[in-house]
Amino acid sequence: MTDPIVVAEGLHKSFGTTQALRGLDLSVPKGTVCGVLGPNGAGKTTAVRILATLSDPDAGHARVAGYDVVREAGRVREKIGLAGQYAAVDEVLTGRSNLRMFGRLYHLSRHEAHRRADELLERFGLMEAADRQVAGYSGGMRRRLDLITCLILRPEVLFLDEPTTGLDPRSRGEIWESIRELVADGTTVLLTTQYLDEADHLADDIAVIDHGRVIATGPPEELKATIGDRLDVTLADPAALGSAVTVLSSLAGTEPTTADSVRLSVPLPGSGFRLAEIVRELDRAGVAAADVSLRRPTLDEVFLRLTGPSDQKEHVR
Amino acid sequence: MTVSPSPLGRLRWTLADGMTLVGRELGRLRQAPGQIIGLLVFPAVMVLLFGYVFGSAIRVPGGDYREYLMPGLFAMVTFTAPQGVMVRMAGDASRGVMDRFRSMPTARLAVPFGQTGSDVLAGLLLVAIMAGAGLLVGWQPHRGLALTVQAFLLIVVLRYALSWAGVYLGLLTKDEQTANNLAPLFLPVTMISSAFVPTGGMPGWLRFLADWNPVSALTAALRDLFGNPGGSAGSTAWPIEHPVAAVLLWSAVLLVVFVPLSVRTYRRWGR
């Protein structure tokens, strides 16, 4: 286990009467991808803005790459890259002149800024569009340009605030590919997202945020295990629905949900259930099943369970 | 807050980064040839439009209307300067570009300095073209090179001070669309002045406003320095009697108010 490169402790931040963060703790080991998940308004963007030195916390403190984000903000800025929810580049300029300008603003020499711009354009497949105005780029190309703008200084930590929101699946795949490459180079990535499959694909660890606090952390598989497996049953005959509900309720301890008159689904407490056992129980009650399956929950289900309005929220760890 | 090597090093980076951002504006111009043409044609069209349309009907004391008009036009384009800066600042703010600058080790003050610096360059170009158009329609400075240079310097000083007001207003509106909608409001301010017509015929209250409008002070100062008709002579309002002092005073006031306000707002942006 390496030392964490991003540490936040007890971050609080209010905007007027709205409490965006209420004691957020976060720790990201060096060289990993941390996916921050949360519903809209959970405080994801506020947390990223504080870690990227754009905003000051009301209470609590955070260190990035060994420097305090408030007292040593200047040092932190030399170590990080930030891509927000918009493609924050000059749309009137070309891709190449954007990279050169930002390179100069990162205090590279003119020569070095030009060289680095070409290198990044080449590596991330934007060379062909390098001398076109950004205004004419596709959404995916803009985001990619935005992303590589963060890479000019080879940041140790990259903050990506919803990097693929609004992109088509193909462009999203390309951004994912780029992020994986960066991680292979040793960059630590903290990414917020609303797409759970994105977190599932990219993140080593996930932090679920709700109401300004981290309510669960852990690798995706571990989080899925905490809410147990899920049992899906498809009946051969809708007439058996009543008995099927009774059997599943007694097995799971909760009422199953029904998608229609033949399909039922129920979360199982823990993962100690065997498929054969379940089929036998159904048989005994005279329920003929066309299909019975036991599956790992999706991250969506974990997320909904953790952040949903029910009071069954679980604190993992 | 920022751990920089020394105040001198910080100043150096502020200037260097400011120049990079001036370069950015020049690069934008190169990408938008339409804008260049607009920038070049607009002043010439103004001279012709005002010179011949108004000039055909308006009689001013001291003779030629186009001689009278040119200082007013210089003043008008100077006072519309803040709108461009305002729109660009608001554009950066609303598109997240400002956040990017602020998350980088770029000097904090480089952004407002870059914007105001590039605006002065644009202003010089504008004034040069306008002067050329003026010479073509019969306007000319009559009092020698030194006073002519002083007149143009006065324009630059006031324009620079005004562009800081633009920085602040841009940070305040935060949104390019809003900024664009506010921009035309600068025009009436330039009209309630002695830029195009003598204030003598205005009703008392309007004349008071016009006399104290800094547009009138700049217009009167330029008329005096160029030796064009309708300057400070005969006016009893202080800013018109002492127009050069009034323009310098206005510039100082604008800078004293808007530089700290802008810098403070920029530093605290989104915190």
What does this structure look like?
The complex is a heterodimer of chains A (317) and B (271). Chain A is 35% helix and 26% strand. Chain A contains eleven helices and 14 strands. Chain A has helices spanning 44-51, 73-79, 95-105, 110-123, 139-149, 169-184, 196-202, 220-226, 241-252, 275-284, 299-307, and strands at 4-15, 18-29, 33-37, 59-64, 67-68, 80-83, 157-161, 188-193, 205-210, 213-218, 230-235, 257-258, 263-267, 289-295. In chain A, the strands form three sheets. Chain A has a six-stranded mixed β-sheet with strand order 6-7-8-3-9-10, sandwiched between helices. In chain A, strands 2-1-4-5 form a four-stranded antiparallel β-sheet, with helices on one face. In chain A, helix 3 (95-105) crosses helix 4 and helix 5 runs parallel beside helix 6. Chain A is elongated. With 271 residues, chain B is mainly α. Chain B has one domain (7-267). Helix content of chain B is 75%, strand content 0%. Chain B is built from 13 helices and no strands. Chain B is globular, with a radius of gyration of 20 Å. Chain B starts with 6 loop residues before the first helix and ends with a helix. The mean pLDDT of chain B is 88. Classes of the chains: A alpha/beta (317), B mainly alpha (271). The interface between A and B is medium-sized, with 37 and 29 residues. Chain B: It is found in: Cell membrane; Membrane. Chain B: Residues 34-269 form the ABC transmembrane type-2 domain. Chain B: GO terms for molecular function: ABC-type transporter activity. Chain B: This is Transport permease protein.
